[in-house]
Every structure is written in C-alpha cells, then in structure tokens.
Amino acid sequence: MARKVRGKGTGASDPWQEVGFFGFPGLDYGTTDGRRLRVTETGRVLAELALRNETRLVDQKPSEEDEEAGLGTDILSADLRVADAEGRLWLATASFDAGVFVSQLIDVARKATIPFRDDAARGRKKTKGGGPAPVLTDVRFWSDDRFIRPIVFYGPDGEQDEHRIVQLQFKYTLLSFDVAYHRPAPEIEVLRHLLELRVRLDEVGVFDYETVEEFGPLAFFFSWEVLFQNNHWSRDRDGRWRHSTLPLPLVFRSVDGSGTPQAQVVVA
Q1: Which residue from 54, 156, 184, 206 puts its CA 20 to 30 A from 115's CA?
Q2: Sign of the torsion angle spanned by Cα atoms 56, 60, 61, 66
C-alpha cells in the first residue's frame, strides 16, 4: 500500500544543485526517443541534481500517535539534468527507498564517512557548520526483520577518540532521516562542484540492543552518485510502484529549457 507523503520538502526557491561527475568515452545512456546520450571525451561533466520524496509504502495501519503516516518506508527520487553539445537539457530519474540511508549508516566497507554524534543539532533541524536546512525531512524507514546490526560511530563532530560500537536490532524499528546538501570544498575552484549528502538520523527510536541506551542522533556523509546506483523502483503502467532486484538502467528524456553547451555530451 502506498501513501502520498505531503510536506516533506523544504520549499526552497531553487531545488537544483550543481554537480559534476567524471565522464569518459563509452559512457552511454538510452533516451526515451530511441537515441543515445554519450560522453565522447574524458573529463568532468556538469549537471544539476534535485531530490524529492515520492510516497510511503505503508506496511501497517497508522498508529494512534501518527494517524497520517503509519509504519512504512519512503520511496524517493533524484533527478539529474544535463546539457548536451547543443545546450538542450536532458533529465534522468533514479528512484530508491530509504534503505539506501540505512545501508550507508551500517556500511562496513566505509564508502560513506563514519557516522558521528550530532549533539549540536539535537532537537533542531540544523546542519553541521551552520549549513543549509535539510532538503528532505522525516524520511522514514521501517523494518521488523529482527536482525541485529552493528553501527560504528564517533563522538560529536567526528572526534575519533570517542568512537563506539553499538548493536541495533531491527525489531519494530522506525527510523527518521533528514537529508541536506553539503559542499566539502566550495572555496577550491576545481572542487566546487563536489556535492555530498549530509544525512541525520533522528535520536528517537534508536537504542543499543545490549544496554537499551539511546545513542542518536547520528550524522554521516556520502556521495550523491550512490543514489543513481540504487535505482530499484519504478512505476508500472497503472502508476503503482514496483521494486526491481537489480538496479534499473538510467534513461534520459528531453525537457524544456537550455543550458551551457558541453561538447563532450552528444545525443544521436
């Protein structure tokens, strides 16, 4: 059962964020009109990114405390908008669920930064260093698979000498995340297009399985590109959300507007 999520964005005047990704000859995507969008040269490709919350897949009836939301996991989408060699805009959408954030939280390969306690933001919608407000708020993940998973995290603001390991059991577990954009090096010209997602796990409902001690809130960073590697959701012809075990291919479609031409991005 899917339920539309309302009021989960920030209402920012410009939801698009400039990003860059590494392109190389052979990078090739389909388009909705049967052509191919190709990168012909090695180097950085500039694009724009926007995030949105699509719906909530409700597993159980709403609780008395939260009649609107119920217990479920949110499906989100990320749009990537690219200008080709003629300045025409092309857009691809990846849809994923909030499990992406949980995967980064418990990531043993450490593709994301090690989480840290976010005490400075306790009870407030604030990002590290006084940055922008979240672009997505109260993104929910629900699980009752009963597995116990370890989480390693540092002290406030990443102080490594205060690291801890806790055990989180996913038993009637409802997690809430806020997602904000973060620029790691905006003052360096060649790195100013780098963009990370700063994800904050709310302190409510996260307890150490062994001590029953509340250990949130936690925050961590990871690259926006991870979202496009987890394109597991799509709508069928009836508009219902369907899950794919394997990531779905990205397909670009032509959209209104124009951008700065990029000679290495060719559609033919």
Answers
A1: 54
A2: negative
What does residue 158 show for φ and ψ, rounded to 5 degrees?
A: 85, 20
DSSP-derived letter for residue 213 is -
The whole-angstrom separation of Cα 246 and Cα 255 is 27
* Rounded distance between C-alpha atoms, residue 23 and residue 46, angstroms: 9
Nearest by Cα to 247 from 228, 233, 226, 232:
232
Q: Hey, where are the domains in the chain? A: 18-267
Q: What is the pLDDT of residues 67-83, one digit of tens each?
A: 455 689 999 999 999 99
pTM listed for this prediction? 0.85
CA-based angle 243:20:73, to the nearest 5?
25
> Does the bond joining 217 to the residue before it have cis omega, within 30 degrees of 0?
yes
Q: Which helix (H) or strand (E) holds 221?
A: strand 218-223
Q: Give buried/exposed letters for 226-249 (b at 16+ CB in 10 A, else e).
A: bbbebbbbeeeeeeeeeeeeeeee
pLDDT (tens digit, 9 = 90+) per residue, 20-68?
999 999 899 999 999 999 999 999 999 999 999 999 988 655 555 554 5
Nearest Cα to 178, choosing from 51, 42, 47?
A: 51
